[in-house]
Amino acid sequence: MNRLADATSPYLLQHADNPVDWWPWCDEAFAEARRRDVPVLISVGYAACHWCHVMAHESFENEQVGALMNDDFVCVKVDREERPDVDAVYMTATQAMTGQGGWPMTVFATPDGTPFFCGTYFPRPNFVRLLQSVAAAWRDQRDAVIQQGAAVVEAIGGAQAVGGPTAPLDAALLDAAADQLAKEYDATNGGFGGAPKFPPHMNLLFLLRHHQRTGSPRSLEIARHTCEAMARGGIYDQLAGGFARYSVDGHWTVPHFEKMLYDNALLLRTYTQLWRLTGDPLAARVAAETAAFMIDDLGTPEGGLASALDADTEGVEGLTYSWTPAQLVEALGEDDGRFAADLFAVTDEGTFEHGTSVLRLARDVDDAAGEVAARWERIRARLREVRDTRPQPARDDKVVASWNGLAVTALVEHAALTGDPVTAAAAVRIGEVLADRHIVAGRLRRVSRGGVVGEPAGVLEDHGCVAEAFCALHQLTGDGRWLTLAGGLLDVALERFAAPGGAFYDTADDAERLVSRPADPTDNATPSGRSAIVAALVAYAALTGETRYREAAEAALSTVAPIVGRHARFTGYAAAVGEALLSGPYEIAVVTDEPAGDPLVAAAHRHAPPGAVIVAGRSGQPGVPLLADRPMVEGQPTAYACRGFVCERPVTTVDDLVGQLARR
Fold first, then answer.
1. CA atoms of 280 and 609, how far apart (whole Å)
2. 432 phi and psi angles, rounded to 5 deg
3. What CA–CA distances, in Å, run from 367 to 54, 272, 285, 288?
């Protein structure tokens, strides 16, 4: 009996009609394994995963394979996005056993959850042989299987240990991290490393903050070149905006077509900050288009943002997005078709499969003459219309707390610089979904779908990203409610997730017990829980003046500092927060009756040092500590710039404020 029909996860629902007797992750599944005395087969994936679909079509939809699975195993399906704690534990085991990881992840475990054999994707013939071999080993070599499982648990317990060496994350370590990134930088194509190449958003955010603090031209150029290369590549949707998850090659040409919310949120921040620091028109355009993609293509009826767009369309990767020269001519006519083929590097040979190409931007349009720019916009609009008539990729419409938190922070930063009311309103709507749906009895839940909150508890990453988002909304709106909500989440984190020596676990002390308690300090596709909570603690301390939150942030960051010095590519968010702490962070309050359009407010956002917090409103505005006891000077809008709670003299002109912010 397949038990997935009532799941809230779109990924689990994709498997609800399999001939496999799937269970969701639950105590009852493991009790059933104990009753039957069989191993547990744990299959972990997510809705937008291409190879998850392939394995499903090859194996899980096959009656004979399903029968083998049902006869000898209790089979459990897990959405890694819904249960990142389960995913983290078994991914660590998979990496320990195989030297690599990925999804779909296939784990065989004892009835108490102890993993004894792990892998990723298996073609059907290999998977059938594996099922038969594991079943035989469980029957005939049980002691060896259990012994191997115990060794794996010991290994993953060590990998997730807390209480290691600590060090202050000072300027020398951050400079060393920037130097290490420069050595690993791909000066030809941008980014770091070879194929597959992932957008290094958190590293770029760190490098932009490092440049702002130090003036390093190298850090700025690495970020600028990488952002330009990605924006011109096939990894960026040249028609509708938004970034794919990664490029299968080393030069950003052919993407793995899934679009994840977290990538686009983090890249929105990166391009927004690049534009802020340089005025680059390409960065400005890409930031605006990415914000619009998130709101328009990922927005849910309830006001949140969906998790992802699928990599496949009707089982074919890239079906929606690829073009031939003939298709361009058919859509645009002969002259515009040839122009578009040249502009988007679409050739007869193709860059993708079957002679098709993924659109890239081969010509400079952001500084082009008005006539050329108008033609480009007309062509893009027409191609988007044609593409919209094609079959479209599926959407994973669950709302993930941490990813929506990342989106709120990014949208707020963009709205603060542009004054765009659409972006600002979207950020507030998402925040309201997180506050009203995801906080239940004072505790944060990780996912919701269709307005219904799921059961999985929020992990540390959720608490950090959502608390940082609430701090951002407090700055955007001047509403004290957001600051109160942020403080509540941070207090839960300090009480329930704290580990020895200033570190944090990824799960609460009252969460479901797994075979190990994860505590990963490294930033990967998203900020680690530890980096996320530190970012929120730093912002909250600056907004409230409550130093115990800053002290907790500094202690937690000291547990990551030794890793920053050795593995800069995997600590980008931690390093970015380190830059904020090193710069102050600045607390900037602008006392004004009309924050919207006030030149002092605009100057504060344009020239703020890394990680600065900025609030604007009336003196003594309720719920806004930074506006308390700060009057206007001679009845004029007045700016107060402070660093580490030590304040400059109040100023009433843009030049004076910019001068104060430049002295750091």
1. 19
2. -65, -35
3. 43, 18, 11, 16
For residues 590-613, b (16+ Cβ closer than 10 Å) or e, as one string? bbbeebeebebbbbbbebbbbbbb
Higher confidence at residue 367 or residue 27? 27
Rounded CA separation 100/121 (Å):
12
The pLDDT > 90 percentage for the chain reads: 82
Radius of gyration of the chain (CA): 25
- The residue written with tokens 């709106």 in the block is 477
Q: Is the pLDDT of residue 46 over 60?
A: yes
Average pLDDT on 501-515 reads 92
Question: Measured in whole angstroms, how far is the alpha carbon of residue 526 from the centre of its chain?
Answer: 4
Distance CA 522, CA 556 (A): 13
Torsion over CA: 159, 160, 165, 170 (sign): positive
> What local confidence, expressed as pLDDT, does residue 161 receive?
60
pLDDT at 320 exceeding the cut of 90: yes
What is the crossing angle of helices 201-214 and 217-232, to 10°? 150
What is the three-class DSSP state of 476? helix
Q: Which of 184, 186, 193, 208 is nearest to 267 (CA)?
A: 208
pLDDT digits (tens, 9 = 90+) for 460-486: 999 999 999 999 999 999 999 999 999
Token pair listed for 249: 């090659």
Mean pLDDT on 14-29: 95
Contacts of 505 (CB under 8 A, 6+ apart): 162, 460, 497, 498, 499, 517, 518, 519
Residue 504: beta bridge partners? 498
How far CA 212 is from CA of 216, 225, 318, 382, in Å, comes to 8, 17, 39, 40
Whole-angstrom distance, CA of residue 5 vs CA of residue 14: 9
Say if CB 169 and CB 560 are below 8 A apart: yes
> Could you tell me which of 276, 269, 167, 171 has the C-alpha nearest to residue 213?
171
CA nearest neighbour of 206 among 178, 169, 176, 243: 178
Exposure on the CB side of residue 269, measured as CA atoms within 13 A: 29
Please state whether 442 falls in left (phi above 0), alpha (psi between -120 and 50) or beta: left
Neighbours of 342 (CB within 10 A): 13
Residue 380 has pLDDT above 90, yes or no: yes
Q: pLDDT tens across 174-231, in order?
A: 999 999 999 999 999 999 988 999 999 999 999 999 999 999 999 999 999 999 999 9
